[in-house]
Amino acid sequence: EVCGADGVWKPATIENLRKVPVGVIDCYWGGTSVTCWMDEDTLRKSAEGTRFLEDYSAVCGGKDMVAFTAEENAWKLQMDQWNREVERYRNEHADAAWTEVEEQCGKCPWNPPAGPGSPYRPAGLAESMVKPVCPVSLTAILFYQGETDAGATDCYGELLTDMVSYWRGLFRDQEIPFLYVQLPVWLEEGKEDTGTWPVIRKAQAEARKTIPYSGMICLLDQGEFNNLHPTRKRVVGERLWEQAKMTVFGLPGKQAPRAIDLRTDGNRLTVILDHPVSICGNEPLTEIAGQDGVFRPAQAAVNGNELVLTADTVPAPERARYAWKDYFKAAFFGENGYPLEPFDL
Hints:
30% of the residues lie in helices and 17% in strands. By secondary structure, it is of the alpha+beta class. The strands form 5 sheets. Strands 6-7-12-11 form a 4-stranded antiparallel β-sheet, with no helix packed on it. Strands 10-9-13-15 form a 4-stranded antiparallel β-sheet, with no helix packed on it. A 3-stranded parallel β-sheet has the order 3-4-5, covered by helices on one side. Helix 8 (197-206) links the parallel strand 4 (178-181) and strand 5 (214-217). The radius of gyration is 23 Å and the shape is globular. 31% of the residues are buried.
C-alpha cells in the first residue's frame, strides 16, 4: 500500500505511486570498500572482515590522528592543485581526450593517506555516515558499490550479506528491501583485463540467495571504456525502479534474463534461461570447460530460452560461463531489451 499527504492508505498501483513524494537520504563516499560500511563488531564476526581490519591497521603503522591530519591536509592541497589544472585545461580544450589531459596535467595524485580518520578505513563510514542517520523509517535501500573490492577479496558476497544484516539492525527492520546494482563493464586504458570484476558480479548475483527481501539489477550493457563513472545515470535509476516495483510494491516489473540450469548431451552443453534471449552483433563471450576445469571459447546458438554451446576443443563439457571479462560488449538480450546476466555454472 501507499499513503499520500491525505493519510489514506491505498493499494499500490503505478498511478498511485506517481503521486507520492519520494525522499532520498544520500549516504555515500566514492572509492570505498564494502567493509567501510559496517562496524568493527560486525567485521570481526568473519575471518575476512577481521583480515581487512588487521591489514589496514598494519598499513597505518600506529599513526595517530595528528600525524594523519597533517598528511591528509598536504594531500588535499596537492589534489586541489591538480583539479584546478585539469579544470583549466579542459576549459581551454573542451574536446581533449583524457590521455591528453593527463599528459598535460599529470596523473591524478590519488593516494589519500591511510590513518584513523580516513573515510576508506574499515568500519569508518558506518560510524560517521550510517549511524548518524539512524533511527529513521525507510521504504528501501539502494546500494551501488563493488569496484574497489574487485581483486581485493574472494568473500564479497559474505561481506555484503553481513553489511545488510548490520544496516537492517540499525534501522530496526529486518525486512527493509535491499536493491543493489551489479557492476557494469569497465577497463582502464593501457591496463590488462584481469577478470576481477566478473568475480564480484558473480558474488553479487549469488548474494540474492543469502539476503532476503533483496533485488539486483544488471548493467552488463552499461559502463564505459576508461571511465570508472559512466555518464549514463538515468538507466541505473530506471532499472532500480523496475526492481522496486517488484521487490517493494509487488507490481509487475522488468528484469534481466538469467541462467538457471544446464544440461549436457555429448559434446553439447545447453544453458537454460528463465526468459528467451536473442543475440546481437557483438561477440558472444561464451566459454565451456570439461573435467580439467579449463574454460575455452565456445560457439553459441540461441534457441528461445536456451543457449546451446559447443567447442571442438571440449568434447565433453561440464561447465559454462558467459561474460567473464572486465570489459566487453554484451551479446544476449531479452525481449524487454535487458541484457542477459553473466553466469558461471
